[in-house]
Amino acid sequence: MKSIRVLGTLLAIIACSVSAYADRASAAYKRGVHAEHQNKYDEAYQAYSEAHSLKPKDAKYYTAYVRVRFYAALEHVRQGQQLRNSGKLDEAVVEFQRAADIDHTNFVAQEEARRTADMARKQARREEAPKVAPQSPLAKLVDQVAGPVELVPLSNTLINLRLTESSNVVYKTIGKLAGINVLFDPDYKPQKINVELNDVTLREALNVVGLETKTFWQPQSSNTILVAADTPTKRKEVQNTVMKTFYLRNVSTPSELQEAATTLRGILDVSRMQTVPNQNALIIRGTPDQMVLAEKLLADIDKPKAEVIVDIAVLQISRDRIRTLGVTPPTSASVSLVNGAGSGGSGGGGSTFSIPQLGAIGTDNVQITVGGATLTALMSDSNTKLIQNPEIRVLDNEKATLKIGDRVPVATGSFGATGGVGGTLVNTQFQYLDVGVNIDVTPHIHSEDEVTLKLSLEVSSVSGEQNIGGISQPVIGQRRIEHETRLRDGEVNLLGGILEDTETQSLSGYPWLTRLPVLKYLFGQDNRERQENEIVFAITPHIIRAQDLTEQNLRLVDLGPGTGVTVRYKDPRMSSTSPASTPADSGSSQKMQGHTPDQHAATPPAVSPQKPPEPAKVPWTPTTSSLPSPANSPSTAGSPVRALNQRAAPLAPAAAQASADPCPYGQHYVGQKNGVATCAFD
After folding, report:
1. Is this structure's pTM higher than 0.70?
2. Is 127 exposed, middle or buried (0-12, 13-18, 19+ CB in 10 A)?
């Protein structure tokens, strides 16, 4: 009785534990559902994981656990990406690793963690103090090397000048107007000239005076020029030279690099040039104008080669039809005598007869043998279709070769050598021929999306063998086309359809009977065979990259006189848009359209300094400056010098007074009458 009580107590305890265990799994599942509704995927994952561990065979708990595991890992990946984008790499690595720990099947999290860790290591190495290699004194000097001298005048006033003076006075007057210093070569001898310039820039004025006096000017600093006689010797002595390395990106062979160097030597008269084939580079030393033109010329010719894909379709169609119908009748009969006396006679059997037996020959002694007849009814129809569609991608003016097939040995010769013991030894030389489809194509691409193709197409096969001199030689049948045509992009061209049609008809049987319409098949045999063989070559070019020509490549460039190479730059007044005109100044702004920011036109004296106008919208009023010649000039009277159309750029408030002065640099304001300001030299 006591044992029964103990057993009942144990059963009750086990039942209570099982129910409590089930209640824990259900409670964990409920917590997970509540957390999932609030988008707290980490808490939901912990709760579903606990429920699944308590009851691993429950499908409901397992489904919820797998679903939330995916969402929790995805949320950590998203947070890690946000941290990485904000630059917090270490925290991003933690998030990615947390996602990988939650879901071991999430390969995205593992890859992101590895990539972000690499980024963090690289960033740490960059933040470390770099070891600065000691720099040689020459390298320090290289960093301080300056480029070509650029002339920067203090005033960009458009110059109007009417002056009859010696050339050095004219040069100095122009320099005075622009705020630059003018130096003269000691060997230069000035001459008296008459100059009349209207609305020209500083560079144009200097070039006009240099053309008239046969001189040239060379910048020595940003505000100083040197004038010398225009002779080859003086240019070589005075003119500055610069050096530059040009890297060509589209040359592939040393010959192409040498061709570019030859072009520069022939066009620009560059004598000091060195090619570096390993780097596809040209090192040039010359004047700044030659460098500018070399840059332009290399940009025109250093272009990627045009490229085309040639689609070649080789279609070979063969059809063989054979029909054989009728009877092959016997065409011969044999008659023989047979001895029928039996084998017991002295004469024996066979065809041997005695004289008495000859008189007893009858039908039993005659044997006739007739050949058999054969009835044939056969018809065969075979079609063969061979299609080869190779594509060849080839550069412009480059030859491409395609061979599809076999290499067949052909004996080309033999020679004999006498051996010491073995006698004569014969050696045969062989040459291998390409049999199959052989294609050679050379394209030339035009700029109008057209291409000229020079083609050589060959289709060959071994059609038999022939014994020549005891050596079996292959008989090669070929069909070859050499063609040159001009096609548009995507245009299909049939190069040639080679049609071979052979028809054979034979009739065998008894004479005259084979002519009967129906009975001819009983006394004869009709044999017909027809063979058709056709080959078609279809060519279709597809231009991938054509010759890229821009407006800059096609425009003319002024190189100056034929004795030298100079550059004439664009007039800034013609390259910009014209400012907005008002009724008050519309009549006087006809020839001043297209100001640039570096061209200054005179502003009216009434312009407010507090709100400087925009350079592209300021109306201007022409001003005339009556300027005496320099004091050392022999004719100081009656030499008017006018500076027109000066427009001041927007200045700071401290320079407001200077911006209101209509006179150029080196002059002062005298007065104004009828809207015309009068200026004089300081």
Report:
1. no
2. exposed
